[in-house]
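Sequence dictates fold. Next comes a concrete instance:
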Amino acid sequence: MNPRSLRLKLSLAAVSLVVLALLLGGLGLVLIFDKVLDTRTADELNHTAKLLAGQVGFSADGAPTLGVTPADPRFGAPYGGLYWQVEAAGGRSLRSRSLWDKVLVLPERPKTALAHHQVTDVPSPAAGQAIAVVRTVQISDPRPEPELVIVVAMDRSGLVASRSTFLRLLIPSLLALGLILACAMVAFVHLALRPFRALHADMRAIHEGRRTRLPGSFPDEVQPLVDDLNHLLGVQETALQRARAQAADMAHGLKTPLAILSALARRAEAARPDLSREIEEQATAMEGQVERALARARVAAAGGLQKRRCAVKPAVLRLVGALSRLPDASALEWQVSVDADVTFPGDEGDLLEILGNLLDNARKWGRTQVAISGSATAAGVSLMIDDDGPGMTETEMQGIGRGQRWDESKPGTGFGLAIARDLAEATGASMQVAGSPLGGLRVTLAWT
């Protein structure tokens, strides 16, 4: 795909935003999960602390006692992961068997009675950290120091395992969601750009001459562009018609004085034959140059957004029928082998003028045979015109390539091949001149 493609840029931007959103969302979910997990764990520990507070008492010597211990077996296994501790004034305390020979060390002992439980982190007896809930219990009248401090803790290693399980489920889920969202965004971009693809197809139809205007069924965001393009097409069509009319007027305005000049030269032939011949030659040369310049101007004016295509075979048959009726063409055999699906990338008038010059040149120089063949392939279209005349030298062919006149010994201006080349190149075709298998000249027109 082209790096400048709007579809590629929008798709990459959409996928990048999806990835960023999933990363931020995943991070937020992990933080929420950690918070919920800590809160739930603290609630369970607080429930155990309340149970201990309801069962604690004092012996006759003032030592704390506990009637019923929590039933969770982890409290009875050394370093089992769950721990409780009841600490009374004077350093007397009760501990779960899971603490074994360790104690739970609080960061700071409460100085006053706590209205609610406190959640903190303490060093775990099994190494690492433990989440702990601290409650104070006042058994008798208030004193400067709380009677009992109850601590219930759980190793964070168990929470870490839960967090790892959550991540193992979260990451594949986010990847699957990201893939689905990325595909959805790419499909969305493809759908959003559909009006532009339709506009491109309609513009191609205009370039190929299958349509003259863009349809009006586009979204509101694209319709102003379509309206401007239709307006531009209308302005171009008007300008094209005006340019063709001006070219015709100029041709008429120039050819009439040249015809008068040629007539005056023939009238002066009796008195000054050398001067008459020179004037006639110059007038003929001027007429050829005018025809060539006007042909260039007309085809240049036809260039633009809207291109036309026309069938080649009907134009060839029409010209062959007209040329074969000329007196000096009666001895020629015209062979036409042009596929019916061959089309020319230009106006029919341009094609007729190009072929008219080429076929007229073949008629002038051909002795017995003129062959026209054309076919379309995947690489493009080629149209070949062969004659069995004297042909041309390499120097003369190069002269045609530079736009020089060649057939000065025959009637006409001598610019037929040069004008045909100019017209062909202006319409996007190419023209090559080479030797023909028939012995004369082969002119090949090629286009895509």
Summary: The CA atoms of residues 73 and 229 lie 82 Å apart. DSSP finds nine helices and 14 strands in the chain. The first helix runs from residue 6 to 55. Confidence is low (pLDDT under 50) at residues 401-406, 408-413.
